[in-house]
Amino acid sequence: MFSVPKELKKPTGESLVYCHRRVMVSKEFTFDAAHHLFNYDGKCKALHGHTYRLQIAVSGMLDDRAMAVDFGDIKEIYKNHLEPHLDHRYLNESLPYMNTTAENMVYWIFKQVAQHLPKEREIRIEYVRLYETPTSFAEFRREWE
């Protein structure tokens, strides 16, 4: 059972940071897109589409609000730098020249996010995971760079 607080807590002037370690946060997005594969002898050789699920994970030291990265900042990177190339697009035209496999795409997404992250507090990208179907994904991690 939830009880209604008698008053809202107010800052005391002390640090709001409890964790003094690096923390990872992740945000998930979905987008629909069409593509076809080159040099592939299977049904994905033909034009087809997916509802992709994208996970972007970044880490950093906490700021004075006790946040590593605001989820809204990750969303802004997605909206401004990824979504225009991915959502409801023909990926073979909207992405740089590549075979539009999940493996190639996840690396391109990783590089785009890394390029647009804030530079303070050692914020860095940890991984990008791209689901092509509910049970099949590709992933690229910072330590593999």
From TrEMBL:
One Pfam family linked to the record: PTPS
**NAD among keywords:** no
Tell me the cofactor note: Binds 1 zinc ion per subunit.
Q: Which domain of life is it from?
A: Bacteria
Pathway field of the UniProt record reads: Purine metabolism; 7-cyano-7-deazaguanine biosynthesis
Q: SUPFAM superfamilies, from UniProt? A: Tetrahydrobiopterin biosynthesis enzymes-like (SSF55620)
List the keywords (alphabetical). Answer: Lyase, Metal-binding, Queuosine biosynthesis, Zinc
Question: Cofactor(s) for this protein?
Answer: Zn(2+)
Q: Which residues form the active site?
A: C44 (proton acceptor), H88 (charge relay system), E132 (charge relay system)
- Enumerate the residues binding Zn(2+): H35, H48, H50
Alphabetized InterPro entries for the sequence:
6-PTP_synth/QueD (IPR007115), 6-PTP_synth/QueD_sf (IPR038418)
**Which catalysed reactions does the entry list for this protein?**
7,8-dihydroneopterin 3'-triphosphate + H2O = 6-carboxy-5,6,7,8-tetrahydropterin + triphosphate + acetaldehyde + 2 H(+)
For this entry, list what GO says about its biological process: tRNA queuosine(34) biosynthetic process
Could you say which EC number(s) this protein's record lists? 4.-.-.-
- GO terms assigned for molecular function: 6-carboxytetrahydropterin synthase activity; metal ion binding
* The family this protein is said to belong to: Belongs to the PTPS family. QueD subfamily.
**Name assigned to this protein:** 6-carboxy-5,6,7,8-tetrahydropterin synthase
State the gene name recorded for this protein.
Answer: queD
